[in-house]
Amino acid sequence: MNLGFGEIVIILFVALIVFGPSKLPQLGRTAGLTLHEFKKGLNSIMEEDSKDKKES
Fold it and tell me: Does 47 map to a domain?
């Protein structure tokens, strides 16, 4: 699923209308933190899995 420039512009425009300009930075920050925590959790699971495979 690849998003092009046009699709991203449409999504941002709809978000601007729905949430308003004052909420967009807060939503972006929250989304970034959520992705960061997800990646951190995924990396820890992958590290545990690789350790388990090495011990077997």
Answer: yes
